[in-house]
Design a protein that fits this description.
Layout (H helix, E strand, L loop, with lengths): L1 H14 L9 H25 L6 H13 L7 H19 L5 H5 L13 H7 L3
Helix pairs in contact: 2-3, 2-4
Length: about 130
C-alpha cells in the first residue's frame, strides 16, 4: 500500500515542475530563434573586434552548426537552459570579456579520434 502511494506522489511531482522561462515549446523555440538572430548579427562585430582569421560567412556557418547540434531537444526547460547559456556566452563575447583564444576554440577542427586497433596505434606511435 505504501509503495502505491509513493508512486502516486512521484507522478504528481513530475507534472508540477515549474518552467524556467517558457511556458510551452513554441515559446522556447521563439527564444532560440531570437538568440540565433542575435548571434547572427553579432558575428561581423566579433570578427572585427577580436581580429579573427576567419570570414564572416565561416563564423555564421559555425553558429548554425552549433545551434543544429541541439536541434533535437524537445523539452522546453532544457531549451531554456541552453538559451540562458547562449545569452551568457553572447554577452561575454559582446563585452569582450573573452580572449581571442576562447573564440577560436569554436573553430578548431575536431580532434582525430585515437585509433583502437593495435597496428594503427603502433604506426602512429601511441601506446
Amino acid at each position: 500500500m505504501a509503495a502505491t502511494g509513493a508512486g502516486a506522489v512521484v507522478g504528481v511531482a513530475a507534472k508540477q515542475v515549474k518552467p524556467v522561462l517558457s511556458q510551452n515549446l513554441s515559446e522556447a523555440r521563439r527564444r532560440v530563434r531570437n538568440l540565433y538572430r542575435a548571434w547572427y548579427r553579432e558575428i561581423p562585430h566579433t570578427v572585427h573586434a577580436y581580429q579573427l582569421d576567419i570570414s564572416v560567412a565561416a563564423g555564421r556557418e559555425k553558429v548554425r552548426e552549433l545551434f543544429m547540434q541541439n536541434a533535437n531537444v524537445k523539452d522546453p526547460r532544457v531549451i531554456d537552459l541552453l538559451v540562458i547559456k547562449g545569452r551568457q556566452d553572447l554577452e561575454e563575447t559582446i563585452h569582450i570579456w573573452k580572449q581571442r583564444t576562447h573564440i577560436m576554440r569554436y573553430f578548431h577542427e575536431t580532434e582525430k579520434k585515437r585509433p583502437s586497433d593495435f597496428l594503427t596505434r603502433f604506426y602512429e606511435g601511441h601506446d
